[in-house]
Amino acid sequence: MNATKLIKTKDAAANNDAPNKATTKDYDVIIVGAGAGGVFASYELCKNGYKGKVLVIDRGAPLERRNCPIKLGKTPKCIRCNPCHIMNGYGGAGTLSDGKYNITTEFGGDLHKVVGYDKAMEMMEYVDSVLCSMGGSEARLYSTADTDLKTKCLQNNLHLLSAKVRHLGTDRNIKILHNMYDYVTPQIEFEFYTACETIDLLGGGGFLLHTNKGDYTCEKLVMATGRSGSKWIGGVCSKFDIPQEKNRVDIGVRVELPAEVFKAITDDVYESKIVYKTDRYNDMVRTFCMNPYGHVVSENTNGIITVNGHSYADPKLHSENTNFALLVTNKFTEPFDDSNEYGESIARLSNMLGGGVLLQRFGDLEKGRRSSARRMEKCFTRPTLEATPGDLSLVIPKRQLDSIIEMIYALDKIAPGTANEDTLLYGVEVKFYNSKVPVDENMQTKIPNLYAIGDGSGLTHSLSQASASGVILARHIMDK
Ligand SMILES: Cc1cc2nc3c(=O)[nH]c(=O)nc-3n(C[C@H](O)[C@H](O)[C@H](O)COP(=O)(O)OP(=O)(O)OC[C@H]3O[C@@H](n4cnc5c(N)ncnc54)[C@H](O)[C@@H]3O)c2cc1C
């Protein structure tokens, strides 16, 4: 590897120092980000006996150190750990998640648009087989194909998307990740608490990475930095003149209600992705990330606190509630096209009013009044996340809030009780999607040997598709 000459990119003039060979560590492949994409890329390289030197770096913690203080009961509210354990570290945002691997192209990303439908499905099935071989085989595989829920939805103007889903549960998911780490570590190196700051192109080909722990060089560089690395990957793209296409943002609330209300549905399909077109605005609202007997959690993306949910496979860790998101899709074109900035502004407003996540009873929202601590005391549904009782109508724009309320009444027809006044709404839930980085069918950007996989590429938004993109990348490197 020629580590002596830098190619000047836009801002390389400010960084004229050639890397010091004595302190720079050289690799054939460096993967930045140990989330689902990075985990599966490293697994596939290892499994196929890749002979090169591979390093995976992540700014978060190793698996055994990943503990959200809220989950440990050390604090009731998000204390903005840096880096956030929910989003960063081995396994990425998937580690403390519910571990729902959806095998579908109907949602969860657009991988099929780049690699084709058959290959996308084949890769997701392969990911599922690896998960099973690593300890997931006892987790049930649900399918919308074996259910009459679709008919019931259609009869009520709702649309159920088709998918198979393997629900691992947070606990089993973590065990599988341990097994995958043990499998690859004899061959693949990992550096945690290591954040990639900038990248330079080297004169003889390859890349020089500047991190908080020193410099590294490699021939092939894989950007697998997920949603939490959105600003970083945006910086890399603008440095190397890689055009990014702005994505949409989904804004909404996390709904929490007694598990009995959705039991018939969750027993049948576990996760139902249901889409509804509102009468009032023609807007699309959808259910997202359903967690039977689950827990609502807060998450920290680039310093902004939003809400999410997960559940455990172990019944001893079940709550009495089911939670899911209701999201309204927003995409802007001109003169303003930064959908993420729009979503961040709304989340910041909620953080300003609630100091983090806001919580409101559906009945209070309908009556146009805030939920207060006193009203929450009389609430039959017990919240699984300690959030600030407040008024979501002061935060979420009217259009999105009207759409969410309309959807709650639509869902009430297939799951009576959804529109109960004690149904809890947490806000805001924002799904940020990274701007799309143009990649070819091997996940390669226009810069040779620079790859973008997983959610960081803007192409995937789910565990299955992010993992599948890692497998595709690894097989391409093997072929090369
Ligand atoms: C609470 C929660 C629950 C979820 N539940 C589900 C679910 O059940 N099913 C599903 O399909 N999806 C779920 N998702 C989404 C899913 O986790 C992501 O789609 C998936 O993790 C994307 O994988 P990835 O590898 O692309 O990125 P990530 O998993 O986000 O991993 C990226 C990694 O890159 C690291 N990183 C970022 N920037 C840098 C940098 N500059 N230097 C070094 N390292 C860096 C981060 O620390 C992180 O570990 C959930 C997400 C959350 C937050």
Kindly describe this structure.
This protein has 480 residues and is an alpha+beta fold. It is 29% helix and 24% strand. It contains 12 helices and 21 strands. The longest helix has 20 residues. The two termini are 17 Å apart. Bound molecules: flavin-adenine dinucleotide (FAD). Flavin-adenine dinucleotide binds next to α1, β4, β15, β16 and α12. The site of flavin-adenine dinucleotide has 47 residues, from α1, β4, β15, β16 and α12.
Shape: globular
Please compute the radius of gyration using only Cα atoms. 22 Å
Indicate the low-confidence ranges by residue numbers: 9-17
What's the total count of β strands? 21
Set down the secondary structure blueprint.
Layout: E1 6-7, E2 25-32, H1 36-47, E3 54-57, E4 100-103, H2 111-115, H3 117-136, E5 141-143, H4 149-155, E6 159-160, E7 164-167, H5 170-184, E8 189-191, E9 196-202, E10 207-211, E11 214-223, H6 230-239, E12 249-258, H7 259-269, E13 274-277, E14 284-291, E15 295-301, E16 304-310, E17 321-330, H8 339-354, E18 358-361, H9 362-367, H10 373-377, E19 388-389, H11 398-414, E20 424-432, E21 450-452, H12 463-479
Parallel strand pairs: 2-3, 2-11, 3-8, 11-21, 18-19
Antiparallel strand pairs: 1-9, 4-7, 5-7, 6-13, 9-10, 10-11, 12-17, 12-20, 13-14, 14-17, 15-16, 18-20
Helix pairs in contact: 1-5, 1-12, 3-5, 3-12
The structure holds flavin-adenine dinucleotide.
Flavin-adenine dinucleotide is lined by residues 32-38, 57-60, 83, 86-89, 92-94, 97-100, 102, 108, 195-196, 224-229, 232, 289, 297, 299, 308, 310, 454-456, 461-464, 466.
